[in-house]
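**Backbone description:**
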Amino acid sequence: MKTTLATPDNHKKEWHLVDANGEVLGRLAVKIANILRGRNKAIYTPHSDAGDYVVVINAEKIELTGRKENNKRYMFYSGWMGGESYKSVAQMRQHKPEFIIEHAVKGMLPKNRLGRQMIKKLKIHSGTEHPYQAQKPKSIK
């Protein structure tokens, strides 16, 4: 029996649409990361990119459990001494809601060239409008 490995020739990349309205951040991030890696396909190969594109809408309506809305903080560093700054999830939701989902999904992907290639297939938008109607993304719940 031969092992079949995913190559760009033997699989087709599809587009998926995910509505983040009312979804819990971690549970949604796992679903998205698995689609980006291709783990939902029978041809999944860990060392190659067999994943699909994912379009996320309503990023500002993502939910967090417990007290994470105010207690969870994202750290940013400017590179200078004393250049650390922190923002809570509530502040990020007002300033840049796409970052919350992107940060969670990025942490679940490989930390190498392959992971950087996979995260480029994630398209996040606040609101219900997105410019990928021509790709006919399939809705996922």
Residues 73 and 88 are 4 Å apart (CA to CA). The domain at 15-140 is CATH 3.90.1180.10 (Ribosomal Protein L13p; Chain: A;). Residues 25-37 form the longest helix (13 residues).
